[in-house]
Design brief:
Number of helices: 7
Structural class: alpha+beta
Bound molecules: adenosine-5'-diphosphate, magnesium ion
Number of strands: 4
Shape: globular
Distance between the termini: 14 Å
Largest sheet: 4 strands, antiparallel
Amino acid sequence: MSERTLAIIKPDAVKKNTIGDIIARYDKAGLRPVAIRMMKLSKSTAEGFYAVHKARPFFDSLSTFMSSGPVVVLVLQGDNAIKKNRELMGATDPAKAEAGTIRKAHGANIEFNAVHGSDSSETAKFEIGYFFPEMDLVG
Ligand code: ADP
Ligand code: MG
C-alpha cells in the first residue's frame, strides 16, 4: 500500500555533505520525494517536532542539536514507506545499525545519527503536517 512518511536529513549529515548520498538511497529504495524543504529549525520548532520526547533526559540536547544547522525535510511516498524508511535508516544507535544502513554509514552516535524517519502512520501524519500544507505535496 502506498503511503507517506516524513524524513529529515539532520544537521550532522548536512554538514558532512551527505545530502546527495542519502537522497540517492531513497531513490534506489523506491521512496519518491513528494515534498522537499531545506530550512534551519528554531529551537522551539525542534522542541515542537519532538514534543513526544519532552520528558526524556536527552530532549534539550536533541532540540539544540536539531536547531544547530540546516536540515533537509522530505515527504517520501511509496509502498510501505514508513517501514521501508526505518529499515534504510537502521537502528537509532549507529553502532547497532546494520551494515548498509544510512545511520551505519553517516551516524556518529546515538544522538548525531544523520536522519529522522516517522515510526507509525499516526506520527507520519503529525510530522508531515508539521512542515507541509497539503497543497505542497506533489505526489
Ligand atoms: P529514532 O530517531 O530512531 O526514532 P527516538 O525516536 O527514540 O529514535 O529518538 C529521537 C532522536 O533522539 C534520535 O534519533 C536521536 O537523535 C535522539 N536520541 C535518542 N536516544 C537518545 C539518547 N539516549 N541520547 C541522546 N540522544 C538520543
Ligand atoms: Mg522516533
